[in-house]
Design brief:
Nucleotidyltransferase, domain 5, globular, about 300 residues, 5-stranded mixed β-sheet, alpha/beta, 3 domains, Dna Ligase, domain 1
Amino acid sequence: MFSRKTLGLEITSDRVRMALVGGSRQKPVVESVQEGVFSSDVLRVSLREPNVLQQSVFVATVRETTLKLLSKTERTAVALPDASGRVVLLDLDTRFKSREEAADIIRWKLKKNFPFDINDAHFDFQVLQERGSGEVSVLVSLVCMQVLQQYEDLLIEAGLEPNQIDFTSFRLFELFAPKLTLDDNYLFVSLMAGVLNIMLFNQGILSFYRAKELGGRGFSVNRVYREISSSLLVCQDKNLGLSIGKVYCFVESTYAEEFRSMISDVTEQEPVLLDVGKVVELNQHCKVDAATLFSMSAAFGAAVRNL
């Protein structure tokens, strides 16, 4: 019996990465990968304005990259740049009777905190926890409607059926989730393409989230140290007595030991270095080196979402 194959696609400011993946969420098997490159004037990541400046070039690049995969699969899970939207952890004072009521409450609480009209945003939310006090903790993802709509329209024009659209940071988490979620309390820190992502889980519930664009391809030890240290201080101030638990980190192999050592200093724990090569298997016909495996991680995570 043949396993189902799914497409995962990651969009960045300078390229599109695509992966065809089979197997299961616990044991994904990479069938093939492809990458298309954009010139600097094709796409500019923005929170409020449509991101794609050269639409015909974007569509042609995505279509050409898809054809190289030699797959008939059209349904595609998508990873958008973290900077194209916002993610918020929000505490609501009272429980709600329906998702419609919750949506109204969330809009009211967030309307003064964003640089665009919250009514012009597409947002989704997930209830994380209902406390005995009556408070409800929710995870809210927001994207300006015209930003999301443009991406969807152009991907459809390129011959794909986009679904399960999320941000890159969550796609990376998705890839490693089977390993991470074996623990109830853990910290997941990743640095990829200049974006630092921090997720802290307590009793299996996301308690702190941050995605910070640092810029550049490498990393500044001092800056990353400050960002992680200040984030953990904020988190612990809001959650007195919170235990960090196990620490996991994900970064390009070139910086792995330096990154691991720095996180060890910040957390006073020995972090586990995650390796995408130990999470996915390669089809016998798929020849991919370690650097390409790392760069395709978010596309793998997106594809896994549909398995």
